[in-house]
Amino acid sequence: MTGAAETVTRVLIVDDDPLLRAGLTMMLGGAPDLLVVGEAGDGSEVLPLVASLSPDVVLMDIRMPTMDGLAATETLRARPSAPEVIVLTTFDADEHVLRALRAGASGFVLKDTPPAEIVEAVRRVAAGQPVLSPAVTARLIARVASSPADARRAEARSRLSGLNPREREIAVAVGQGKANAEISAELYLSVPTVKTHISRILAKLELNNRVQIALLAHDAGLLDAELEG
C-alpha cells in the first residue's frame, strides 16, 4: 500500500521580496500535500529552476527587476509540459493580470489573501482547476479589457470558426461567466457533457484553461452585448 507521497504537489515561489518568499514557504510548508522545492527572486531564474526542480505549480510575482513575471510566464507556458502558474498580485483587476492569463496562467491570488486560501489555490491549480471563479472572470474582463484591435478581433474570430455551433454556444457562455451547472441548465445538457465540450474546445483552440476561452470570446466581440447590458 502506498502513502500520501504520491500526491505531493511541488511548488516554486518566485518573488523579489525575500520576506514574502519566506512567509509563503512557511505557509505552504505546513500543508502535508505541498512541498516548496525552490525560491527565485527574479523571473530570469525561472526556466533553469523549473528544468532542475520540476515543480508542478509556480507562484509568480508580476513586478520584478530584471525579468518580470509576465515575460517569465509567457516564456514558461510556451514550453511543453510546463508547470501551472498562479500570478501573485496586489490588484484584482489589472492589465498585467489579464496579460498573464492570456499567456496561460491558471489564475491569480492577491498577496494579502488569507493563508488557507492560498494553500487551497495551489491545490486547485495542481488539480487542473483555474483559480478564478466564473464571476471574477467576467468582472475582470468587464473592468480591464478595452475594445480589442481589429487584428486581434479578426484572429479571435478565425480561431473560433473551427468550433461547431454547440461548442461556440458553450464558449460564449464560459465568456459570460457562467459555471458548468448554469450552462447545463441553459442548454439542456448534462454537466459531464458540458465538461466534455469544454475539454474539446480547449483542445481545438490549443488553450490551457477556461479563462483563456473567455478572453478569446471577448476578443472576438461575442460578449459585447453582455458587457454593455
Automatic annotation (TrEMBL):
One protein family per Pfam: Response_reg
Matching InterPro entries: CheY-like_superfamily, NreC/VraR/RcsB-like_REC, Sig_transdc_resp-reg_C-effctor, Sig_transdc_resp-reg_receiver, Tscrpt_reg_LuxR_C, WalR-like
Stretches assigned to the Response regulatory domain: 10-126
Taxonomic lineage: Bacteria, Bacillati, Actinomycetota, Actinomycetes, Propionibacteriales
Domain of life: Bacteria
Originating species: Tenggerimyces flavus
4-aspartylphosphate: modified positions: D61
Keywords per UniProt: DNA-binding, Phosphoprotein, Transcription, Transcription regulation
Chain ranges of the HTH luxR-type domain: 156-221
The keyword Protein biosynthesis is annotated on this UniProt entry: no
Record protein name field: Response regulator
Entry keyword annotation includes Transcription: yes
